[in-house]
Design a protein that fits this description.
The chain contains 11 helices and 2 strands. The chain is mostly helical. The protein has one domain: Fido-like domain (Fic-like fold, Orthogonal Bundle), CATH 1.10.3290. The protein has a two-stranded antiparallel ribbon with strand order 1-2. A hairpin with a 5-residue loop joins strand 1 and strand 2. Helix 5 packs antiparallel against helix 6 and helix 10 runs antiparallel to helix 11. The two termini are about 25 Å apart.
Length: about 290
């Protein structure tokens, strides 16, 4: 990617973020084989201040992300693999449904002997992924709070307090703390009055992504930053992966699906993300799980 001034988005004089450019997020059908790391000109400290995370592009191979640049083909692969995607996502949350049982439930047949909570989680994941499909198919997907809220309202409707709203936007305050798999707790970001601080943080992410050319890099940055901020009371990782998958499929790349077999790897990467704000290992895992 050229560093010529003509291709550099203007800086926001009020802060570290980029000014959003009209149409910058419209990458439908885009496939770029240039995996040059996006140079934002920020120091590590400035990047953490702006996005809450930092990373090392040299350690992340975005070329492993699958895709042909044709949106319909990416959607076809997504639909063909949907039962497995739902099963893996549920298993990562501790759901005990087997893959055949997930397929049975998605076919409309109740599975005997299973908890209602586990069944609801499967159906909610299916509803959210199908809504994502509709967003991408219609060309209405965007890195937008309304889209994120809609997907969260589906994927966490039986689990999260005030599903479909950022923390602090409703009548409940607090939340956002994360318990590490290695022990200990990391406090979540402050939400501010009526969620103002989280809304501002989301807008900073939007503006930053608008300055990026490669949707693969956009997706990884979004997934890590949104997960770290904990915009919602629960369901943050699932919602962030849904949004990142929307970025990828809208450009003809494959959706992100972390297999249950890589749960330990995900936990280690998330511990590092929350404890140190270093998103490198988590972004590397997500890239490897979008094949």
């Amino acid at each position: 990617m050229s560093d010529s001034p003509a291709e550099k988005p203007p800086w926001n004089p009020k802060g570290l973020g980029y000014v959003r450019r009209p149409g910058a997020a419209d990458r439908s059908g885009f496939l770029d084989t240039d995996t040059t790391a996006f140079d934002d000109g920020l120091t590590s400290a400035e990047r953490r201040e702006l996005l809450g995370i930092d990373w090392d592009w040299a350690s992340i191979d975005t070329a492993v992300i699958g895709g042909t640049g044709v949106v319909d083909r990416a959607l076809a692969r997504f639909r063909a693999n949907l039962p497995v995607i739902v099963w893996d996502a549920a298993r990562l949350e501790g759901n005990n449904f087997t893959l055949p049982e997930v397929q049975t439930l998605l076919d409309g047949v109740t599975v005997e002997g299973k908890r209602i909570e586990d069944q609801d989680q499967i159906l909610d994941l299916d509803a959210a992924y199908k809504e994502l499909d509709r967003f991408v198919t219609s060309g209405r997907f965007a890195v937008d709070k309304a889209v994120s809220d809609r997907l969260h309202g589906l994927v966490a409707r039986h689990e999260a307090i005030e599903a479909g709203h950022f923390r602090g936007q409703g009548s409940v305050n607090g939340g956002g703390s994360v318990r590490l798999s290695s022990g200990g707790t990391v406090e979540g970001r402050e939400h501010g009055e009526s969620g103002a601080l989280l809304i501002e943080a989301f807008q900073d992410i939007q503006d930053y992504l608008a300055g990026m050319r490669d949707p693969r890099q956009q997706a990884l940055v979004y997934a890590a930053a949104a997960t770290r901020h904990q915009f919602y009371f629960d369901g943050n990782k699932r919602t962030a992966k849904l949004m990142a998958s929307g970025i990828l499929m809208s450009a003809g790349f494959d959706a992100i699906s972390v297999p249950y077999s890589r749960l330990y790897e995900q936990n280690v990467a998330l511990d590092r993300l929350f404890a140190t704000d270093d998103a490198t290992s988590y972004m590397r895992l997500l890239a490897d799980c979008a094949r």
